[in-house]
Amino acid sequence: MYTQCVRCLTVYRLQAESLARARGQFRCGHCGTVFDGLERLTEHLPEAPFQELMHEEASATPVVLSIPAMRPAPRQPALFELN
After folding, report:
1. Beta partners for residue 12, in sequence order
2. Of residues 35, 36, 37, 40, the one with CA closest to residue 53
3. Would you put residue 47 in left (φ > 0), alpha (ψ -120 to 50) or beta?
4. pLDDT surpassing 90 at residue 47
């Protein structure tokens, strides 16, 4: 995945774990601007020369996730709980 600083237009390659850990907020290593990395997040860079990555508007309706990767087992109540 790639994102771009909104001020100096530097493009950064990032991993999903960085995106999740930062909650989408990044500080540009070139100009120091803090920006929302989700704003210009893209899976692939354009093939043609570009100045700015495409800006995609967020959907007004949430995406429905229907295929779970896992589901934790329900917590079993303890026979005796000490408080």
Report:
1. 3
2. 40
3. alpha
4. no
Per the document, the length of the chain is 83
User: Which is more confidently placed, 37 or 71?
Assistant: 37
C-alpha separations of 70 from 63, 66, 67, 73 in Å: 18, 12, 9, 9
pLDDT tens-place string over residues 26-45:
999 999 999 999 988 998 88
Structure tokens at 71: 């589901």
- Considering only CA atoms, which of 34, 2, 5, 6 is closest in space to residue 18? 2
The tokens describing 21, both together, are: 């850990």
**Residue in the structure block whose two tokens are 């995609």:** 56
Among 50, 51, 12, smallest CA distance to 29 is for 12
